[in-house]
Design goal:
alpha+beta, six-stranded mixed sheet, three-stranded mixed sheet, 3 helices, 11 strands, about 25% helix, elongated
């Protein structure tokens, strides 16, 4: 009699665990496919030779008012460009490549945080809060060698009104 009771209780717990796992999988599928909530980073292959040949130029381009495309080359132990100036940004598309090893690309205090793999252009989008101003540090958050702690850049954000005042 005890044996049957234990088997029944075991079956109940197995059913509960299976239901929880199925529920989690269903919610991930729903949000990933139906709602389109996916990671904001995409990667496109690129060869180091193409980068060296100038087919990926580092720099900042304003595509439309407040819409920027920022190409960044990461190498031990620097980002190029090391200073990015944006005026009233609404949307910033970062395109980052690594020339040598795995690097990180993070702007602390924001949603910008990605790994940068050699041989790929990491593309991710940041929509800064309206009215944001100041200097924001870009850090490499993947250990990339002895000079890792020197690998940084800065994003300077200003409003068009502050440019008129200054």
């Amino acid at each position: 009699m005890e044996h049957e009771e234990g088997s029944t209780l075991e079956f109940v717990w197995i059913t509960i665990v299976a239901a929880v796992i199925a529920g989690l999988a269903a919610s991930m599928a729903y949000y990933g496919f139906a709602k389109g909530f996916n990671p904001v980073c995409n990667a496109t292959p690129i060869s180091i030779e193409d980068i060296e040949a100038g087919r990926f130029e580092p720099g900042v381009e304003e595509i439309a008012p407040g819409i920027y495309r920022v190409n960044i080359v990461a190498r031990q132990f620097s980002f190029e460009p090391s200073e990015i100036v944006l005026v009233d940004p609404k949307r910033v598309e970062f395109r980052v490549v690594s020339m040598d090893v795995i690097h990180g690309f993070q702007i602390p205090g924001t949603s910008v945080n990605s790994m940068v793999l050699p041989g790929y252009i990491g593309v991710f989008v940041w929509e800064p809060p309206e009215g944001i101003e100041g200097e924001f540090l870009i850090l490499c958050n993947e250990y990339c060698g002895l000079g890792h702690d020197y690998m940084r850049a800065v994003v300077k954000i200003s409003s068009s009104s502050s440019l008129l005042e200054g």
